[in-house]
Design goal:
Blueprint lengths: L2 H8 L4 H4 L2 H7 L5 H18 L4 H34 L8 H32 L2 H26 L1
Helix pairs in contact: 1-3, 1-5, 3-4, 4-5, 5-6
Length: 157
C-alpha cells in the first residue's frame, strides 16, 4: 500500500461529500499533515456550501471528517513505523519470519478496521444528508470518478 493511500482512504467516506478532495489529499499526503487537513477542510466546506448543508449537518459531517483524518494519520504513522522496522531487519544476522508476519498481519488488521470505520462513516453521511443533497453529492462523485477514470485510462494507453 502506498503511503499516500492512507490519507486518501482517510477521507474516502467523505469522498461522497468532497468530490475531488480524496484524490487531491492523497496527492498531498507527502506534505505537512496540517496542509492536507486545511485542504480537506476547504473542499468539504465548499461542497457543504454547494449542497446548502445546515449547521447541524455541518457539525456532524465535520465530526466524521475529523475522526477519520485522525485515524488515517495514525494508520499512516504505524505504516511508516512498520516499513522502518522491516528495513531495520536487514541489519539483523537472522530474521524471525513469524515475527515479521505478525507485524504485517497487525498492520493489515489495522487497515481493515480503518476501512470498516470509513464504510460506517459513509453510511452515517448518507443518513445525515437529505435525498436532494445525496443526489447533488452523487453527481459530484460521479463527475470526479469519471475524471479519475479518464486519468487512469490515459496513463495505461
Amino acid at each position: 500500500m502506498k503511503r499516500t493511500a492512507v490519507i486518501g482512504i482517510a477521507v474516502l467516506a467523505f469522498a461522497a461529500v468532497t468530490g475531488a478532495a480524496a484524490a487531491a489529499a492523497a496527492q498531498r499526503a507527502h506534505r505537512d499533515p496540517k496542509q492536507v487537513h486545511d485542504f480537506i477542510n476547504r473542499r468539504v466546506d465548499r461542497l457543504m456550501d454547494q449542497i446548502n448543508a445546515t449547521d447541524a449537518q455541518r457539525t456532524q459531517i465535520n465530526q466524521i471528517k475529523e475522526k477519520l483524518f485522525s485515524e488515517g494519520m495514525d494508520l499512516k504513522s504505524s505504516q511508516r513505523a512498520l516499513r522502518r522496522d522491516l528495513l531495520a531487519d536487514w541489519d539483523a544476522p537472522q530474521v524471525n519470519a513469524d515475527d515479521v508476519n505478525a507485524r504485517v498481519d497487525k498492520q493489515v488488521e489495522a487497515f481493515r478496521a480503518f476501512a470498516h470505520d470509513v464504510a460506517n462513516a459513509s453510511i452515517q453521511l448518507h443518513d445525515i444528508l437529505t435525498p436532494e443533497q445525496r443526489a447533488q453529492v452523487k453527481t459530484e462523485l460521479a463527475n470526479h470518478m469519471g475524471r479519475a477514470r479518464g486519468m487512469h485510462e490515459d496513463a495505461v494507453e
